Every structure is written in structure tokens, then in C-alpha cells.
Amino acid sequence: MMLIGIGNEWRSDDGAGLEVARRLGGQEFQGEPIGLVEVLDGADEVTIADAVFSGAPPGTVHDFEAGAEPLPVALFGAASTHALGLAEAIEIARSLGRLPARVRVLGIEGARFDYGRGLSPEVEEAVEKCTRSI
């Protein structure tokens, strides 16, 4: 199983996915999500951790199986700090036949996305919860 953490460690809670990857020895990905298409190609099973902002309480963990159905664009879409969001990158990989059969996506609800390092306490707890569930 491949583990990928997505985020920007210089945008507070946006670094949550990266922290999950660090704690479990996964791959850190800080570029545009469209670059994931190449990373996903050939993998059998992938877990992706990323920060989200949907209005749910900070620290909420959203758990999706994206290999079977599209991710909700409202959580993982182009409203992120990227030109294309994770949802669009996964659908491009699917359309190109590069999406693994199993793609688990953990969206960690953030509280702060301003400039700065370090996670809010709620997100730190959610990161720990994700590392245990993986």
C-alpha cells in the first residue's frame, strides 16, 4: 500500500496530510495535485491524506473510497489553494486508466490555513487518529 500526504507545511493546518505521511514513512507531495496522476500510475492500493475545509468542526476526518466513486468536489475541489484540486486529479487519473482500484482518501478538516507552521490542536489529534487508522 502506498501512502501519500498532500499539503503545504507553510499554511498551518494545510500541512496535516504531510504530517500523516511523515509519521508513517509515506510520500510527501507538495506540488499541484495534477502531478499525482503519474504517482498513482501502476499502484495497486493508495491512501491519500489531505487537509480540507468544508465548515465541519476542525479535526473531523472525512473517509472516502475514491477508487469506486468520485470525491466530493466541495471538499477536494479547485476551491483549494491549487489550480486543480485533488478531486479533479483523481478523475483525470481515472479517465486515463491510471487510477488504482483502491484509493482511500482521508480529508482532515482544518481550522487555520493562514501562513505559518504548526497544526492546530484539533488537527493534531485528527492526524494521530488517521495514523492509527492506516
Task: Please give a structural write-up.
It contains five helices and five strands; from the N terminus they run E-H-E-H-E-E-H-H-E-H. It has 134 residues and is α/β, with parallel strands linked by helices. The longest helix has 13 residues.
CATH superfamily: HybD-like
Which residues sit in consecutive blocks of at least 5 with pLDDT less than 50?
Answer: none
Strand content: 15-25%
Secondary-structure class: alpha/beta
Could you give the count of β-strands? 5
Query: How many structural domains are formed by the residues?
Result: 1
Portion of residues in helices? 25-40%
Order of helices and strands: EHEHEEHHEH
Q: How many angstroms does the end-to-end distance come to?
A: 10 Å
Sheet with most strands: strand arrangement: 2-1-3-5-4
CATH architecture: 3-Layer(aba) Sandwich
Mean pLDDT: 93
The CATH top-level class label: Alpha Beta
Largest sheet: 5 strands, mixed
Task: Output the radius of gyration.
Answer: 13 Å
The third-level CATH topology is: Rossmann fold
DSSP summary: helix tally? 5
Shape type: globular
List descriptors.
134 residues; alpha/beta; 5 helices; Rossmann fold
Write the layout of secondary structure elements.
Elements: E1 2-6, H1 16-24, E2 27-29, H2 36-40, E3 45-52, E4 61-65, H3 73-76, H4 86-95, E5 102-109, H5 121-133
Parallel strand pairs: 1-2, 1-3, 3-5
Antiparallel strand pairs: 4-5
Helix pairs in contact: 1-5
Question: Brief overview, please?
Answer:
The protein has 134 residues and is α/β, with parallel strands linked by helices. The chain has helices at residues 16-24, 36-40, 73-76, 86-95, 121-133; strands at 2-6, 27-29, 45-52, 61-65, 102-109.
